[in-house]
Amino acid sequence: MSGARWTASSLAPALLCTLATTTALAQPYDPAYRWRTVETAHFRVHFHQGEDDLALEVAAAAERAHAFLSPLLGYAPRTRTEVVLSDDSDLANGLTTPLPYNTIRLYAATPSELSELNVYRNWLSNLVFHEYVHILHLDNVGGVPDAVNHIFGKIWAPNGLTPSWLAEGLAVLHEGDGDPGPESGRNKSAIFAMYLRSLSLEPPAFPRLDQVSNPPLFWPLGSVPYALGGRFLEFLEERSGPEAIAAYLAQQGAQIWPYAPSLVGRGHLGAEFPELWEEFAERERARALEELERIRRRPVTHPKRITFQGGEAGSPRWSQDGATIAYLRAGLDDKPALLQVAPEGRPVGPSIRAEAAAGLARGGGRAVLARGEIWHEYRLYDDLWDVDLATGKTRRLTDGARTSDPALSADGSSLAYVRRTGPGETALVRRTGEAGPEEIVFARPGTDVFAPALSAEGSRIAFAMQEAGRRDIVLFEGGRLLRVTNDGSIDTSPTFTPDGSWLLFSSDRGGVYNLYAWPVEACLAITDACALRQVTNVETGAFEPAVSPDGRTIAFVTYSRDGYDLATLPFDPSTFMDPEPALPKGPEPEERPAPDLASRPYRAEDTLGPTYWLPLFGSDAAGTVLGALSGGGDVLDRHSYAVSAWWGLRSHEPGYSAAYLGGWSWPRLDLLSSRFIDSARAGNGLESVFTPLDVGLDFTFSRLEWSSVVRFGWRGTLRTVPGTSGTASQPEELGAVGGFGSELTLLASFSDAERFVRSISPEEGRTLNLAAVLATRALGSDYQLGSVRAGITQYLPFPLPRHGVLALHLAGGAANGSIGTTAPFELGGPVQLDLLSLLLGTALLSPDELRGYPPGWLQGTGFVLGNAEFRFPIAAPEIGHTTWPVFLRRVHGAIFGDLGDAFDRPGTLPFAGHPFGWNELRLGAGAELRLEIALGYFVVTDVRLGLAHAFGRAFAGESEEPGVPALTVYAILGGTF
Predict the structure, then answer these.
(1) Any idea what DSSP says for residue 652?
(2) CA–CA distance, 237 with 243 (Å, rounded to integer)
(3) What's 467-521 look like in SS3?
(4) Is the residue at 413 inside a domain?
(5) 790-822, pLDDT tens digit by residue?
(6) Taking a C-beta distance cutoff of 8 angstroms, is the pair 734, 818 a contact?
(7) Does 271 share its domain with 314?
């Protein structure tokens, strides 16, 4: 957008951009899926082939959730909730939105072994209950917002405009209500207890309410709303009762100004949130100290920590000679990677990319990595890769096989792993030799398997098994399955010692994850020496043990407030302790037969109708316009559309726009049609711009580390001057004002730019974009036009300071022909992004900025531009006030130089008055102070405070530009390239 006003002429592309942005963020489902629907009293469950049985389980769990939660939270939705069940990701997750209609999206994948979600007796029940709490919370609308929704459609949900700890904390509080037991729901999780213990006792102080109410910069990052929110809501329920929370949610859902949730809480919860938060913090400190005192009643284990990056770390694996430990890292400062360290912690070898890592195996000089990758564009599947740890080269072993948790025998000849065999189902698989056939070692309906470990010779397999509502370690040998543990605790990550005499694993028995050891031969022979032993007694947590080849050292994953790291300790059975008592098994999960529900083919029309309408106030080239807009889309994103119509009060002309996006195919189809009044391309008159059809095919190409899209399109546009027949007179070289334009269009983009948690901007990689238009007589066009624009941005990490960045941008364009007197390209200073630009996502586009000059100061049929910025962090103050919806996260700066010019290409219109020449290049330079802020708890953007100097034609010896102030001060909301 080149200006700050809302114009009717921008609405046609705006609708298409809105749809494109929405569809890109909510990736459509695989067009190959064939969908069906089952209906219950309160839900419609949509599922694809292979999910028939699981869909019935979802339907039953959803009705149980409604029956239990609706009275508890004091609200029942007026319409059915749409539930979409898809088996297209190996990451366990769910998404919920109340707009434009109540929708829950569920992924049919069980949580991984050490996921924070692993505290369940029935993963599907926990998932459905969690997501349905969101519906009952966010859909609870009353008062003026409810009246507005009755008039305009569902557009206002005040409960969705509160800090995320409230929504996620409420859902965590109740996610285990569908299947209560000794361990169900994350508020009972030893991992969440570990997070809270570290946050309470380790410096700096316990997180403030304003920090937690906004996107956090401290560990555990995205889990903060769940961990702290869940425990805070538990505290509020204990303090005030569930009725008070239900009353609070109802009143907050009726607020015209939703950004004062603390004031609303005073009447129902007895105090405002700041006071309640301090009480909660004191309670958590007391609980943490009490737990610490209990731990210290026995000798505390003090391991040697060998890494210090924090974030996520896992899967430590020793080399055959014991010289290195390979492990997986997803830190706060770098990309996810497979790394190696010496036993003392010294980094060794290359960093190997490992996005969405799902396990690592090592044996016989060989390494196998499991990691996620986008498969066939629409699915996220885990696969196995052979890795050369010396060179970093990888080679795919499986393709779309949905395989994770690899384990190798000591000589590398036998490989075991977990494979997802269907929606919500897993199997333990073994393969001997790289090309050997797969052998399903263990699979049982309703039973999840995790983390196999092979004995040195490969004859025994230990693994974790979730069955009948509990997680145990089992041993498989010669077709016989032996339970190593049989209780209500969560037992994980088994591993054999090199001589096979001990089986180590981690367990949350006693409320803290520690390492335990089971004497294999003594227990297999059922001797008196068969007794479980506790290896560690740590104050935070100990996970994923691995014993060195000489049997002397245990490497494992430890925890601190910064996150997970590696540690070591001697392997010495003489120091082992009696184990902490395990949780009781608890009752067997209730048998719930699947409901007898008939399915039918999916009908898009059930959710395709318009869901809202809004009055439209804007302006066209003549003046004010009045109208209305509306839109809708089906729940599977197969069809999305937006329409608007208006009348010009000054032009006395109608206008409209209509846009459609289809997610039912690859490539995606987009359609646009519009009519509006614009400024005439010659003179000061007006013209009608009518686009009967703008059609495009969008080819997307996606990977976890990069993405690309190519759009091929055609646009037909008829331009006429109202009150005339045909075209207006003007010099022949300017081309016709009126007439029909038949244009081929090409848009292409690519990006592998990366930024990390502590980054102030992208630090690595690049973005490329290309846009081209061609109109010729051969295409039926009344005018001829060729235009191309290309740009590249490169990000280079700077060694000092940490997270410093050198950002380079180069762009250029050329046009030939014209349909009037508007210049194809403009250069100048930054333009304040208006609200429409933010809503349409154009704030994300790389602007062509020549800072120090007024916006649009230079115009031409060609342009060149180079920008260079040195970006550097200054501070991360994380300053806000309680639950106010404005929060300062970081402060950073930039020193920049911009060099460019717009010029006249030979034989084109004289906009610039000169052809390209090095002595015509203008230089601008200056500095910006950038404030990274969070607005409304969710939107993170920059406020750019800049000082720019225009140096004029620097290569021509000028020191200033006539008509341009030497210094320009500006303030911009939004980012730069």
Answers:
(1) -
(2) 9
(3) ECCEEEEEEEECCEEEECCCCCCEEEEEEECCCCCEEEEEECHHHCCEEEEEEHH
(4) yes
(5) 999 999 999 889 999 999 999 999 998 766 556
(6) yes
(7) no
